[in-house]
Design goal:
Residues 6-376 form the Xylulose 5-phosphate/Fructose 6-phosphate phosphoketolase N-terminal domain. By secondary structure, this protein is an alpha/beta fold. Helix 22 links the parallel strand 17 and strand 18. It starts with 6 loop residues before the first helix and ends in an 8-residue tail after the last helix.
Length: 813
Amino acid sequence: MVDYDSKEYLELVDKWWRATNYLSAGMIFLKSNPLFSVTNTPIKAEDVKVKPIGHWGTISGQTFLYAHANRLINKYDVNMFYIGGPGHGGQVMVTNAYLDGEYTDDYPEITQDVEGMSRLFKRFSFPGGIGSHMTAQTPGSLHEGGELGYSLSHAFGAVFDNPDQIAFAVVGDGESETGPSMASWHSNKFLNPKNDGAVLPILDLNGFKISNPTIFSRMSDEEITKFFEGLGYSPRFIENDDIHDYAAYHELAAKVLDQAIEDIQAIQKDARENGKYQDGTIAAWPVIIARLPKGWGGPTHDADGNPIENSFRAHQVPLPLEQGDLSTLPKFEEWMNSYKPEELFNADGSLKDELKAIAPKGDKRMSANPITNGGLDRSDLKLPNWKDFANDINDDTRGKEFADNKQNMDMATLSNYLGAVSELNPTRFRFFGPDETMSNRLWGLFKVTPRQWMEEVKEPNDQLVSPEGRIIDSQLSEHQAEGWLEGYTLTGRVGIFASYESFLRVVDSMITQHFKWLRHASEQSWRHDYPSLNLIATSTAFQQDHNGYTHQDPGLLTHLAEKKSNFVREYLPADGNSLLAVQERAFSERHKVNLLVASKQPRQQWFTVEEAEELANEGLKIIDWASTAPEGDVDITFASAGTEPTIETLAGLWLVNQAFPDVKFRYVNIVELLRLQKKSTPKMNDERELTDAEFDKFFQPDTPVIFGFHGFEDLVESFFFERKFRGDVYPHGYREDGDITTTYDMRVYSELDRFHQAKQAVEVLSANGVVDQAKADLFIEQMDKTLAKHFDVTRNEGRDIEEFTKWEWSPLK
């Protein structure tokens, strides 16, 4: 029977810690000869990297915590995974995965001997190797770490609906100063100990950032205690006056962490067996404050006598050792030998048997926990038939609004489908948002499930909140919602984050980091794929009448289009049926970032179920009922992508057709925007990009295109430029202008409206000799008069003109 509390066992934990520190320090500087003192082989210049790159400051504190997490796993037989919040801490998980064997399992060339250790050292933070963060290349990692602020959000998102998992979440004290991190401490108000797992947050107070002290580290224990108790946590501390009394640190850490695990288990037992914490009482989850010095155990002073250990100077490379300057080599050797590597490794580079014995086994290793590699259950969602929720579109209803106003709201149509998805997947689907789910018309989802909210419910003032809801949107933080979704998705489940379009930009850097994770993960043969990250942008630029200019920004479309297109899908469905079809496809695809732009306001409906299905599957379609020449040569092409652009483009081409019925044109509706893009290389091919021949079938070469677009116009221009399109393209999109005004005036501001589109089409047609100039001039004058009337009525009466509000689709001439 192993005594996990004995002095002898803690000495083994200390040795494990020393082994990880030895490897972590060595891989910054060396590319060969890693066990120089054990093998009695002096370090030569060629063993040292030309330019060592990496970070030391946060490493030894995290490796200390990781070693104790291993002990907790062994003692309590828990399932635990590691979240490394402090930036640039890649060595922490790399070295632990190497010592417990998982790294070699995933990378067989990194053998557990001197030769394999040399390869490991060389590849760290080295061209063609691995980064200094906890990237997707690292076994056990599901959180990159260098993107400060999101460790807790990711940790909580990962344990939602994972009742048997504990996230060992280390939060950096520099990270803790970020807005997202401060908001994420409120996650305890949403975690249900009955059905969800647990997060053990450890605030790693090492004292310093890059060159400044950190705020939390200068707060007293009393101040920190009040802070966390005010948030509802039960704080406890790991600290010691003598930073080099390692035995005292180990004894205290074991005691404090043991109590934390026992408290977590007691909370869960009370919730699961006694029904506790379901009445508005928030469990006092433990939080650990660990004062572990920056650069702990490393070089103590530089050549000028300035402190390195326990100062900001330990942040990056703590010694100026490099291949061209070996002056500090003796100090480096003294540092490395302080870990007593001969007690840790055999002469052949293998780990001592006594240390192998204390590593958790199999999936219990944090480096091998399936939760960190696509999840325990990697099956797809069970999906209802989206067609059961579709609107009935035919020649009589197309382009008109239904009597039931809710049928005209695309998001309301989608909500009924999402409600069914939630019913079919009660533990594998969640909806996230920043208090906008009701505003975004997801009423059908609320009929099936309330919000998850662990605080007291005060009826009748509160509405649709419960400890066991599937919607989490009660915190007004985009960072929090996105972080929860990423953690949920990276552990194999499926979710959606819906937000007002302009405020998705708040988290575009988070989305970028997730994209980078997907790209790195796809390059690792041992990594499983992930469900796609689903984002819905609604309350969009062209429907912001009451909020106006401040709530306009469709720029996420451009931001994501700049990424590798085989990991990104941008969908702009124009009505409820195409939104349903696209959402099913988004749920079915894996390893993507899906951005859906959808309307929540009453809008005309256009496409039959069959048309919507083709649009979703093919990404775009020539619409025969809106084309006078769906095949063959045309005089002009009309195209649109997005809800309001489709309305205005169809209305614009209808105006042109009524005045000039002999003009031959086709209309192309684009739902999957990046099918137009051409940026693939043979190495990074995206099967969704149209070939040049396919593109020419939709957009006839040498023929002008009027393009109604939801986003910034230069994105459309870039597509046609990449294609070397010989005709002219005239995008009518968002032009960064607006005000608090009427619904249709928002479109006029950007000249997206039907009258500007029709006017430009006729100008182009007359310039090309397709229509009579005199008739064209008369038409253009009519368009200008209508726009002048629009301006007069909106500014004087505060309403839209009938030419907008009363228009309905009728067949073309």
